[in-house]
Design a protein that fits this description.
6% of the residues lie in helices and 41% in strands. It has 133 residues and is mainly β. The strands form 3 sheets. A 4-stranded antiparallel sheet has the order 5-4-8-9, with no helix packed on it. Strands 1-2-7 form a 3-stranded antiparallel sheet. The protein has a two-stranded antiparallel ribbon with strand order 3-6.
Amino acid sequence: MNITLDGYQIVDFTPNADEAPRYTDPDNVAIATIRFEIDNQSDEEIGLEDISSKLTVNDGTQYLLNEGMLEPYDNSDTVPSGEEGELLQTFLLDKEMYEKIWKDKSMEIEIGPMRNTDAKDISKGNKATFQLK
């Protein structure tokens, strides 16, 4: 399988009134969304819900894990064998830290391993790494 970084964006996020209590500081949240294209040349479907990723920030000194609850996938979302599809990975950021510290420093995303619909690793532990800045 091949995975290509298609782009990313970092935006301010304001939770609605129902969700705001879940955040320590709901006025200090940003979201990073990273888009990938997957070319699935394996013999199995890739389950999009079970793919994890790690965003390393601050020149490699800190990291965040993707927020699965903010991603639009469920168990039925896949990239079938022999087809291409989109994968989004989402991260919650402390907006103040991003603006003051992380914004002008290198960031790296590590994605994988790829998993089938039973959450079994089908990429033999392989992960892909991309520089964002």
